[in-house]
Amino acid sequence: MDDILLYNGVKMPREGFGVFQVPGQECKEVVLNAIRTGYRLIDTASSYQNEAAVGAAIKEAAADGLLKREDLFIATKAYIQEMGYEGLREAFTRSMEKLGLDYLDLYLIHMPLGDYYGAWRAMEELYQEGKVRAIGVCNFDAARLMDLCYNVKIKPMVDQIERHPHYQRTQELAVMEKLGVQPQGWAPFAEGLKGMFTEPVLTEIAAKHGKTAAQVILRWNVQQNVIVIPKSVHTERMKENLNIWDFALDEEDMVKIAALDKNAPSMLDCSKPGEIDRLYNYLKNPVLTTL
Question: Which one of 48, 127, 167, 282 is the catalytic residue?
């Protein structure tokens, strides 16, 4: 696995490990297993409520001699209730205390909601102060990303979006390329919704290459310059998800997968009022919702 160079010169792994909905009591060992398996990009968020567990895993991995802090690329996010200039500065301090780190590799605004412009001013300061190596956003569609980029001093280095074969987001990727913003895909498997793992096109391509449908999905993403952060609590699945660097999809494969696009999200739709209400109330019921 190689790295992608963000527009500010920072190297970011092309595949990482996500910890959404991995509870704190389990998360430490899961992250340690991910590090042992070979993952170097770890993605968490304040709203996941497991930053302390991620930090404990990082500390133990370093103490055990598995790697040094600088070998890891750690990302976390500030949620809606942490938006605004002061809110973001306070959120950053809380996250860093929980993670036990003295610098962060990537800090993200989690949702295009609330006073994210005020928050972005704080993000710019943290970046200029050297406390964060890269800053970015999550779930910003093409229009909101363009508007943000046109109105800030430092544009985002990364936009993390829901991205999988049923929601390919060609327009967003084209806009990001134009702006120089690196795309990163969360929920690359759409959590298995709508028959993702049994999709005939994907299973056919997987058999052709001696791989699984999950590996095909991840490879499809990285071949289109999209960083991926699959999640699994099972070590064998972690290894499977990381084993995508010894094959390549051909043009025929890519055309077939392109035809699977339903042009609609499976996980998150920020255009729906009900979804906005759910997001604002997420922390009241974090177990039963997806994010």
Answer: 48
